[in-house]
Write a structure and sequence with these properties.
Elements: E1 2-7, H1 12-22, E2 27-33, E3 45-46, E4 58-61, H2 68-78, E5 81-84, H3 91-100, E6 105-108, H4 114-130, E7 136-143, H5 153-165, E8 171-173, E9 187-194, E10 200-208, E11 211-219, H6 223-236, E12 242-244, H7 246-254
Parallel strand pairs: 1-2, 1-4, 2-3, 4-5, 5-6, 6-12, 7-9, 8-9
Antiparallel strand pairs: 7-10, 10-11
Helix pairs in contact: 1-6, 2-3, 4-5
């Protein structure tokens, strides 16, 4: 049994994870952290993680970037794993995560979906074939109309996976409206669509002469991210200090 402290437990993702954990015999939410008042869950909730005195194996964080320092300090003091699902960290916070990983196990991923992370691995293999053959690469992402950042962190992570496989040979282009020129062969175009209640759609297009190959991922609910977070927490229990990501979880599941 993996015991989890859930930061941001009363938000949309927190409630989703709480529901999923209730049907998973291998994991238990033993405490939550949230400042919201409608505390209608069965486990104890604390205003700050520093107030939490419940024993646990891992912290899952779906809260806000400004809470990172408190979470890292708590995990170091308790010597438990951190699964960081929050996005929007600045460069200093990313450096803090890398530093803390020297003393405590930390998993951080731009997207907790197992499908997206398998897709990243497939894209790296595809890039080594299609990139060398001169295929153009475009990424189109779609999200709901309440999403404030564009492009999505997942779209950037997909682009980074492609670029890593190509030895960082590509640069990213986010808007062509002010350009009157042919497409550069070494660019990855990244386009963002916002509308309705789209949970998350990502298409990676390899366009060559007379053929097009498209890799697609569709998230139909936020449950895919919650399932990934729980899988990550179970994987991280008892791990040695270090930086982990969802590729490590996938490797363990397919070993």
């Amino acid at each position: 049994m993996t015991r989890v402290i859930l930061c941001g437990c009363l938000g949309a993702m927190g409630r989703m994870i709480t529901s999923l954990a209730a049907d998973d015999a291998a994991v238990e939410i033993v405490a939550g952290v949230d400042i919201r008042a409608d505390r209608d869950v069965k486990y104890p909730i604390f205003d700050t993680i520093g107030d939490c005195d419940i024993e646990a194996d891992a912290v899952i964080d779906f809260s806000r970037p400004e809470l990172l320092a408190d979470i890292l300090n708590y995990c170091e003091e308790r010597q438990i794993a951190a699964v960081l699902c929050t996005t929007g960290y600045d460069e200093d916070q990313v450096a803090d995560i890398e530093d803390a990983a020297k003393r405590v196990p930390i998993l951080r991923s731009a997207n907790m979906s197992l499908g997206i992370n398998v897709l990243m691995q497939l894209l790296q293999k595809a890039t080594k074939v299609f990139g060398s053959e001169g295929f153009d690469i475009e990424i189109v992402e779609k999200h709901h109309n309440q999403k404030v950042d564009a492009p999505s962190g997942t779209a950037l992570a997909l682009a980074d996976a492609v670029n890593e496989a190509a030895g960082d040979a590509y640069h990213y282009v986010y808007d062509r409206s002010d350009k009157r020129e042919k497409r550069d062969a070494k660019e990855i175009g990244i386009s963002a669509v916002r509308g309705g209640t789209i949970v998350g759609d990502h298409d990676v297009i390899f366009a060559g002469s007379d053929e097009v190959i498209t890799f697609s991922h569709r998230a139909y609910s936020k449950a895919v991210f919650g399932k990934g977070a729980l899988s990550a927490a179970k994987f991280m229990k008892g791990k040695e200090p270090g930086r982990y990501d969802m590729s490590d979880v996938i490797e363990a599941q397919t070993a």
